[in-house]
Amino acid sequence: MTLPLIALSYDGPLLEEKALLRASEGGLFSLEYVDLCRWLASRLKSLCELGESITYVPDEVDSFKVEMSGLLRELHCPYEEIVSGIFKGSMQNPKDHLKLVLFLSSELQAAQIVKSRQVSDKQQDESLGCQQLLLICETLKLPGPRGQSAAQLFFQVQNKVEEVLKDLPNGSAGNPVLKKSLSNEQWEKLQTINTVLASEYECRRRMLIKRLDVTVQSFGWSDRAKARIY
């Protein structure tokens, strides 16, 4: 059970399995358990666009319950008994406390994977874009894009393409798919549609990554931890 916490670079007092099991028995009345949940939540907030923040002040457990239940709903936690149990203060089963840690850990692992891939994809996209611009300039025998603004570069490319098309026989170039120029408003709508589709794809990919990661991590759990969760 502590393997996911090690992978997340957690170095708190609950790294040992016995300590985690003991703290899970105390649940929200265990300061170490609450600190672990708050640590996981704070890391999640730094990676995801979450509206809920988790703060904890001793002797103010009720505010923690409200914030944590709100965070779980925002993360679409599938354990409804845990979400409602925290809010109502009726969650006292150590199994449920371990499930909460497992869920937050899995969400954080998935968020870290997605974030790292986003950075990698962005760098790859930027590199690919530069390569494509260089190829366009080389093909059209234009100077490289370095030192030019995007507007200047595309203006040169457009002029060069129009010159080349004039020298071609009639019918050499096919008709364009989009025959009208899009307005700024239409480009914005197109970008919105693309963002929605990309977000939906990212959500599905995140769910698959999380399921796979939890399955892999489960092979490292001890029999004692498995018995307490399932």
Automatic annotation (TrEMBL):
InterPro entries: FAM98
Name assigned to this protein: Protein FAM98B
Family: Belongs to the FAM98 family.
GO cellular component term, pick one: tRNA-splicing ligase complex
Pfam families: DUF2465 (PF10239)
Domain of life: Eukaryota
